[in-house]
Amino acid sequence: MAVIAINQQIGSRGVELGRLVAERLAYRFLGRDDLVSEASRVYNVDPSHFLIIDERQPSFWERSKAETERLLSFLRSVLLREMAADQVVYVGSSGAHLLPECGCGLRVRLVGTFKGRVERVIADEGLSRAAAEKRVREHDREVRARAQAVIGVDLDDPAFYHLVVNTSMVPMEAFAEALKACTARLDSHHAEGFQKLRDAALAAQVHAALLTHPKFGSAQVSVQCARGLVRLNGPGLVAPWSELAERVARQIDGVREVRVDSEEPPMPYRSE
Description:
By secondary structure, the protein is of the alpha/beta class.
């Protein structure tokens, strides 16, 4: 089996196609609201805070870079955990860029004509034509700017995706069948590819767990994982910090072993 991650322009009918593909493949469907809801529950964050990741630009005072990266880490942790469970279709504005190149997933970009997307926004949101045109233009600009600033990618670069689809030109059923056929081709890479995906999910979950720990916070700790073996590396990651970091990592289900390396200077103590 495989996972499918769909990035969509507003009005390009991504949720409709995602649900259709999930139904044809008997996969789970995961939308951005589902992802935010789960990340909010797991990490105790107000759901509205996640809008800053890919929906709008923050004000100067609204979010520090560290806080934005922390929120992105939470979303990545939950999304990769869901993907590592296999057989899922995810649809969002920029979630495909969080799927690592592992050979078991499809990154798909949905686009559409400006006119077609405006018509869809009018139907979906009940806006006037002028308001819908403004909504499409502003949403395109904001989402692209946020992806560039937060993830460092250009959402409109076709080279990143395995497939770019113009939903204004061909019936949705045809695209659903095409994605189903592409997914079947990934079966031969399933075992090796999903090991890479599971390792990426474990690393993301350990990193997020460290960010939420009161003794680590935003401390710079890198996390790598290979076949369940987690390696932690960071400035001053020596006793007692190394033992604490190891305990945090071992709390994540699927972590088989933890090894800790240290760099100087020592990590500053973070008070309660």
